[in-house]
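Annex B, item 7. Sequence and structure tokens for protein A, then protein B.
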Amino acid sequence: MEKNKTGKYFKYAIGEIVLVVFGIIIALQINNWNEERKKQNLKNEYLISLENDYKKDTLQLNQRINQNKKRLELLNQSFDEIENTTFTRPEEIISILKNKYGNGPRVINTYNTNSFNLLISSGHIDLLDKQIRESIMELNRLQVFENEVSSSNRDYFLGFMSNYFLKYPAEYSNKSLNQILWKGADLNELPKDLIAFFDQERYTIYRYLELSEDVLLQTKLVLNQLEDYKN
């Protein structure tokens, strides 16, 4: 009898242990499932935020690129006219370029990087698939490089512009004022300085377009990858 009781107790104990182990395993599986679901939800939030940011960047880039292409086209037309004209007096060169002043090149892009920065600072970058992760890292590299180069070129041109207008002031409708401001200006040097002025602006815009189009191309690639991932 004692042996039978002991055997029954032993079986009950084993059964309880098995139930506890199964309960722990199930609880761990549920916990792991919940954690994976949280990670997936967080990943989806990042993907949506990144997509929204890159769509805004695409709109800005297209607009800014088109503006600068128009400005560059105008400058190129003026230089084509200069290169295909026979000049006899400095005033002839001045007449072609004097009305071509703009407001300075618009070559600074403001990228929407909040989602990317949060992704990096939080350490959640590993939530993304390798292909998307590598693509957005490359996009960030292109954005940073474009900003650095364009900012440097813009600053150089603005310094060039400042020195130019100190030497050759803007013209006003008041002729007597113009005479005072332009007194002592060397008009023989003006054509050379005008050409240098607009040539520097051309380079600033050309380099901006070159780098911004690289950024735009990579942005479109990332957007396509994000779209494919959702599907």
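Protein B:
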Amino acid sequence: MNTSRDATIVNAWWERVPGERYWLDVTDRRGWEERLASPRATGRRHDSCALRLITHVKEGDVVFHYDASQQAISACAVSQGRMDKRHLSWAPTGSTEYGDHWVRPSWSIGLRHCTPLDEPVSLYEIARVQWDLFPRLRALEDEAGFELHYPFEMGDRRKTRPISGYVFKLPAVFVQSFPELSRAASSVARMLPSRPGEAPAHDALAVHPLAHSR
């Protein structure tokens, strides 16, 4: 997908599209079930869009979790409270979750209703469906005007894997394409209030403007 623009700019295209309230956490940080988090820059350094993307998560958004050990999307939760700054423990890049950790300044927002999926969505299945979904994603990117901050590499199905990062925007059209994700999102959305200009939260998947237009 398009990555040719300033690396510090977040293209918040979803803020113009009702029903776009889905995210993917790709970290294996301890306590991911309770808080969505991403490291942040300090001092004179500026956060890249990969780090600042989490600051666009709003209370009541639906957050899916990708489990690297399973190579699958394995859980679903709802964000709660306000984004804040705190120091959190992270495993150094390339180490195991159970090895040495170090504390980093981080962005963080609470999670509730964290629930394992009845059937995790495997990376193999993601690669298979994503191949057919590519024209819709490209059309969505054209409408968005720039990159989608999409979480998975595109192209060769055999090389599909999460892009290096922490939190990504998961387009509603992606969630719609996997029955397990759609069911999980609808289940947690029934507990959420509607937002101004949107259909009831549990109906959002059914009315996404790109769902049936391509």
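Comment on protein B: The radius of gyration is 16 Å.
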